[in-house]
Amino acid sequence: MSNQALPRPRFNAPEPEHGPSERGSKVAPKVEPRTAPLLQGKVSEIPDAFFAAAMRLCGFAVVALLGLIVYQLVIGSHLSWHAFGWKFFGQSDWNPVEDQYGALPFIYGTIISSILALIIAVPLSLGVAVFITEMCPVTLRGILSFLTELLAAIPSVVYGLWAIFILVPVLRQYVQPFLATTLGWTTLFSGPPYGIGMLAAGVILAIMIIPIISSITREVLTVVPQHQREGVLALGATRWEMIRLGVLRNARAGIVGAIILGLGRALGETMAVTMVIGNRPEIAKSLFAPGYTMASVLANEFTEATGDLYLSALIEIGLALFLVTIVVNALARLMVWSVTRGQPARSLA
Amino acid sequence: MGVGINVEHLNAFYGKTQALFDVNIAVAANHATALIGPSGCGKSTFIRCLNRMHETIPEARVEGAVRIGDLGVYNGTSATQLRRRVGMVFQKPNPFPTMSIYDNVAAGLKLNGFRKRKQLDEIVHKSLHSSALWDEVKDHLHKKSGASLSGGQQQRLCIARALAVQPEVLLMDEPCSALDPISTGKIEELIFQLKEQYTIVIVTHNMQQAARVAEFTGFFLLGKMIEFDKTEKIFTNPSDKRTEDYVTGRFG
């Protein structure tokens, strides 16, 4: 349709005229006369070389430390690895008296409590982040994000204490009976409502990872360029549509990163979970039942591990936990990085 | 068909700072109208008042009356409703990077609950044709992301995206300032074709561009509309001294 040449302008807009005198009241800048260079003389290379070496040492120290930890864990878990092999991770019998060790209940407990935490924390944190970046009045924005981050600074033992005295009684008296009557048929919410158990661990973990997920999500949402929001708005989108298409969709890789980072924290969290999960190495279907996690068994039983094999089995659990959190964290960093550094990660679909 | 725009006593503010002072203008239907003026003179603010994008900035507000066709912009019409009839193309091409080319064009329709596949196909086809992009992208409509195109193609994609909802007015905020001369030429040619069916308001820093594409030109200075007239008059025989100073390059 458009092969025809563009019509010539019917007249020419005049070329700009130059020359300072024509530029009205503008005064040309006056450059002061130049003197001899002020910074002359030799520069010693030694301090810089020393500085570089020192910093290099610091950098390598981190790598060495990580390597050393892995090495120690591998050496320490040698005995247990020889005794059980892969069976160690598939066996649910944990009996120090008969020297039978299986890590399955702990792996199960860690995974289930973390997933439970994510189910509760993700919608809440996304809501907080969206509210802070997109809808909240500017004056409230700073206060609100400061408060969310403050939640992250509370020591986990304090969370544990709060959970024992407030959360657990509330769960026992109100939440669990309610869940049992409404959702009891799923068998996920059955059995006696102790309060203490997997559900309490999941809830306290959720509260602990909300600040991480929401603050990273907030950061990721802030880097979504303003022109993306305007592009969606200009098409006649409502506010929710703008947030969904223009903001969340562009930030999804970063949001997934934030969630995985929260998961990493949940997997490794020890103190608060130990205080409320019940510490029984069993795989129960009901979330009301007590459980155990990898981190809490390490914290609880290290001091009383008498036999070599017992100790070795605990170290192997430590190794497994370590590897899982490393992988999860690396994955999360990668995803956050892909959003904040370069283009938003493309969809494959 | 495009519709005319009537602006009366428009004042716009950013917090306490006033950005536009009592702007009055009548934009003719089915013509291109260019707005020129030095940076910060309020032309972008003005154009953003026409589709209520101005108020998306915190603490920004508007006084005055704007009518687009039979639609009163600032009395009772929802911004969402309005923007479905007034399309906008921005300075920086902003295709949606997570969507395919097809989905970019269809985005506006899908937002409004338009889901009929066959009709969507047709409209996407038509819009990409209208924005002179079809031949370049027809082989990978679904495979390539909107962000994989070149800058000029991205801008034409954004034009197609705006056209897909069949607006009556097309606002363009320096649509070529991020583009090379060849892409700029294509967009200008496009504007020339589009104004037969749409009312176009274009903000530009390039006076030659204003001269090439627009029948009417408005000159803004420090938030005031200094002069509004036929483009030819503005560039060859302006009635205000300040306009003359600007178009001859004496200041700004």
Pick out its properties.
heterodimer; A: 349 residues; mainly alpha; MetI-like fold; two-stranded antiparallel ribbon; 13 helices; 2 strands; 65% helix; 1% strand; flat; disordered N terminus; disordered C terminus; B: 252 residues; alpha/beta; Rossmann fold; 2 domains; 6-stranded mixed β-sheet; 4-stranded antiparallel β-sheet; 10 strands; 25% strand
Strand order, biggest sheet of chain A? 1-2
Shape of chain A: flat
> Which structural class should the secondary elements of chain A be placed in?
mainly alpha
Give the distance, in angstroms, between the N- and C-terminal Cα atoms of chain A.
33 Å
CATH architecture of chain A: Orthogonal Bundle
What is the 3D form of chain B?
Answer: globular
Number of helices of chain A: 13
Span between N and C termini of chain B? 36 Å
What does the model show?
The complex is a heterodimer of chains A (349) and B (252). Chain A has one domain: MetI-like fold (Orthogonal Bundle), CATH 1.10.3720. Helix content of chain A is 65%, strand content 1%. Chain A is built from 13 helices and 2 strands; from the N terminus they run αααββαααααααααα. In chain A, strands 1-2 form a two-stranded antiparallel ribbon. Chain B folds into 2 domains: 1-85 and 169-252, P-loop containing nucleotide triphosphate hydrolases (Rossmann fold), CATH 3.40.50; 96-166, no CATH class. Helices cover 36% and strands 25% of the residues of chain B. Chain B has helices at residues 43-50, 79-83, 101-111, 117-130, 134-137, 151-164, 181-194, 207-213, 231-236, 241-247, and strands at 5-14, 17-27, 32-36, 60-68, 71-72, 86-89, 169-173, 199-203, 216-221, 224-230. In chain B, the strands form 2 sheets. A 6-stranded mixed β-sheet of chain B has the order 6-7-8-3-9-10, sandwiched between helices. The chains are: A mainly alpha (349), B alpha/beta (252).
